[in-house]
Amino acid sequence: MKISVVLGTRPEIIKMSPVIRECERLGLDYSILHTGQHYSYNMDKVFFEQLELPEAKYNLEVGSGSHAEQTGKMLIGIEKVLVKEKPDVVLVEGDTNTVLAGALVAVKLGIKVGHVEAGLRSYDRRMPEEINRILTDHCSDFLFAPTEKSKQILLNEGIPEDKIFVTGNTIVDAVIQNLEISKAKRNVLSDIGLNGGEYFVATVHRQENVDDGSSFQGIVEGLERVRREFDVQLIYPIHPRARKRLKSFNLEPNGVRLVEPLDYLSFLQLESNAELVLTDSGGVQEEACILGVPCVTLRDNTERPETLEVGANVLAGTNPDKIADCAKLMLGKVNSWENPFGDGKAGERIIEILRSKFD
Ligand code: UD1
Ligand code: UDP
Q1: What mean pLDDT do residues 5-13 have?
Q2: CB–CB of 4/29 below 8 Å?
Q3: What pLDDT digit, counting tens, does each position of 302-324 carry?
Q4: Which ligand has its closest atom nearest to the C-alpha of 240?
Q5: DSSP string covering 112-170
Q6: pLDDT of residue 196
Q7: What separation in Å is there between the alpha carbon of 335 and the centre of ligand 1?
Q8: Residue of the nearest CA to atom 11 in ligand 1?
Q9: Which residue's alpha carbon is nearest to atom 18 within ligand 1?
Q10: Ligand 1 centroid to 38 CA: how many Å?
């Protein structure tokens, strides 16, 4: 069996790392095709170094652009590589433009597609990610659903049951594999100048939030209020898209500490010691839930409803009053919920399933 792993952004590198590690451990015939969607050192290379992943065999260096421009360049570049590599299966993870491009090229070349993290739905078609997820699921041959709920969503959309495998989410593997290493290797609290204890972490980067002036302003005001009302430090490792938008909308979050995007070990440490997480990130909602840290989601919907059901997360949207109310609600929570995303063996399971199909 020959595998091509197609990836391109920060969360894909992190969530594909357990699958790549498993390919390495078993000495499988695989290679990594990086689209170059993310390219800044702290959004890309730092994760390869820190997670000890082999360098990508191909990097298309597609970079940033409009959706059509970015996706179009990816389609052309990925096709050339796959025609040459002739893998049996292409693996993609998540819901980015890279994922859609990888899946679309592969299926049209008659190559099998495996979608890691299949069956997530926000039911919000304004999100580019929702379109990417739906299309990718519907052209995949192996749908690796993280939970029974995501499997049910796929069945309801008419996807045959024999294509769906409930594996857990590889983010659990990544957290388990890296949390202890992060404790041993990082001292992020003193690096950032936090005196332990009372601080909250925010991450905000979604297109529908930060590219819309009034939504981003609502979030910024909400973060300012939360910081003031709870008298805590609020750290916001800021994604480059959001940094750019803050500037163009002339927003200056008062009292919120903006820091550059962090490496994974540092971010895990910051997140796991926080009292509260406020985020619009998919991966951060999951990690907070796994780490037992209460989460306020700065969106009106989530494709991770499992986090709401276990009581780890609440939807606040972008209204400052609602954000402050939700922060209060979540701080009162006893964090004894069960992690709904699996046992940390999703990467192993995914490879085992593929081997049973091809070897
Ligand atoms: C993308 C994904 C999103 C995911 C996020 C993870 C799509 C449609 N969106 O959003 O689902 O949650 O990645 O972080 O695929 N930039 C840099 N350096 C980089 C990358 C981006 O400076 O390495 C800046 C550029 O100004 C760029 C902007 O960020 O225009 C947005 O980058 P892009 O990859 O288009 O989308 P993300 O917001 O990162
Ligand atoms: N993350 C990180 N450094 C940061 C912020 C986030 O390493 O400064 C990690 C985080 O631990 C999670 C992933 O990035 O695993 C989430 O990626 P992102 O929020 O960019 O995308 P999403 O999950 O929303 O697609």
Answers
A1: 98
A2: no
A3: 999 999 999 999 999 999 999 99
A4: 1
A5: EEEEET-S-----TTSHHHHHHHHHHHT-SEEEESSHHHHHHHHHTT--GGGEEE---H
A6: 61
A7: 32
A8: 96
A9: 40
A10: 6
